[in-house]
């Protein structure tokens, strides 16, 4: 292997190690910090599901989501990633979030590639119906910041529009998302527009634990439809710090795609 390639791989692995260490330090320290403010605002996790709720994070607070994910697409093809998202709500009804895979490693028959993944920017608007339900709208762009082979999108800017409906009934919570994405670089002979539908249902188990399940799928002319079942659990260490773990499996004929993930949501600091 070329010396420069080995050096690059070592650099990316060191970066991933530093990120993992930082995540563990945050996980260890933030609950202690948050304990003193446990009567304040709560974290609003969007991860680890595909769908997002209509609710925004606490206005004026910076909220951070981070995690690690492993995808197994075949006996050889694997993908590891470390997603990181920053969320900031200006009011209970308006907010923005920025997400990036700070580290991605893709492996297949040709070898492995490491680097930074794609970046997304989303603006969100909430429309309250009553105390237990709300609609939401998100407009976003996926920016192709990843090198070839590590893309999460089409390799060019992808624009998306999301409709959301969320509702609470007793200890249960549901989120339904419909997402239309306009791909900047679709494959030849395929449609530019992809539609995703995701429906999630979760239930609180006491004050700290919750479990959830979600079905999601995509449709685009010229490519095979996708379907996925996701199961996850989360634990509120404090009101401001929530950890999660889960897995997902594709529902299709042939070799299934498996995913495993863990991470946290941290209502980190008041900004204004």
Quick summary of this structure?
The chain is globular, with a radius of gyration of 19 Å. Helix content is 12%, strand content 55%.
Can you give a write-up of this model?
The model is unreliable at 4-24 (pLDDT under 50). By secondary structure, this protein is mainly β. It contains one helix and 13 strands, in the order αβββββββββββββ. Helix content is 12%, strand content 55%. It has a single domain, classed as monomeric porin ompg (Porin, Beta Barrel), CATH 2.40.160.40. A twelve-stranded antiparallel barrel has the order 1-2-3-5-6-7-8-9-10-11-12-13.
CATH fold category name: Porin
Terminal-residue CA separation: 51 Å
What's the CATH class, please? Mainly Beta
Radius of gyration: 19 Å
Oligomeric composition of the shown chains: single chain
Separate helix tally: 1
Low-confidence stretches: 4-24
| CATH architectural type | Beta Barrel
Count of all domains: 1
- Molecular shape: globular
Task: Give the DSSP E fraction (strand runs of 2 or more residues).
Answer: over 45%
Mean pLDDT: 89
Report the count of strand segments: 13
> Largest sheet at a glance?
12 strands, antiparallel, barrel
The portion of residues assigned to helices is: 10-25%
Question: What is the secondary structure topology, with strand pairs?
Answer:
Blueprint lengths: L2 H33 L25 E12 L5 E12 L4 E15 L2 E5 L3 E12 L2 E11 L14 E12 L2 E11 L10 E13 L3 E11 L6 E13 L2 E10 L7 E13 L2
Antiparallel strand pairs: 1-2, 1-13, 2-3, 3-4, 3-5, 5-6, 6-7, 7-8, 8-9, 9-10, 10-11, 11-12, 12-13
């Amino acid at each position: 292997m070329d010396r420069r390639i080995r050096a690059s791989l070592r650099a990316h692995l060191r970066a991933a190690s530093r990120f993992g260490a930082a995540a563990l330090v945050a996980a260890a320290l933030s609950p202690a910090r948050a304990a003193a403010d446990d009567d304040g605002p709560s974290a609003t996790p969007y991860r680890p599901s595909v769908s997002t709720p209509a609710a925004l994070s606490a206005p004026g607070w910076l909220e951070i989501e981070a995690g690690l994910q492993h995808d197994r697409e075949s006996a050889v093809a694997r993908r590891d990633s470390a997603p990181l998202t920053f969320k900031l709500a200006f009011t209970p009804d308006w907010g923005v979030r920025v997400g990036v895979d700070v580290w991605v490693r893709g492996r297949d028959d040709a070898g492995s590639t490491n680097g930074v993944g794609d970046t997304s920017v989303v603006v969100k608007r909430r429309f309250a119906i009553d105390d237990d339900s709300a609609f939401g709208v998100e407009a976003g762009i996926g920016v192709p910041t990843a090198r070839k082979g590590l893309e999460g999108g089409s390799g060019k800017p992808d624009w998306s529009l999301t409709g959301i409906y969320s509702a609470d009934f007793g200890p249960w919570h549901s989120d339904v998302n419909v997402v239309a994405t306009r791909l900047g670089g679709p494959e030849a002979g395929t449609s530019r527009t992809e539609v995703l539908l995701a429906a999630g249902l979760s239930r609180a188990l006491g004050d700290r634990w919750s479990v959830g399940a979600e079905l999601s799928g995509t449709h685009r002319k010229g490519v095979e439809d996708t379907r996925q079942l996701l199961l996850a659990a989360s634990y509120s260490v404090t009101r401001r710090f929530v950890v999660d773990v889960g897995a997902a499996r594709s529902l299709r004929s042939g070799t299934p795609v498996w995913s495993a993930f863990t991470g946290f949501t941290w209502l980190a600091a008041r900004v204004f």
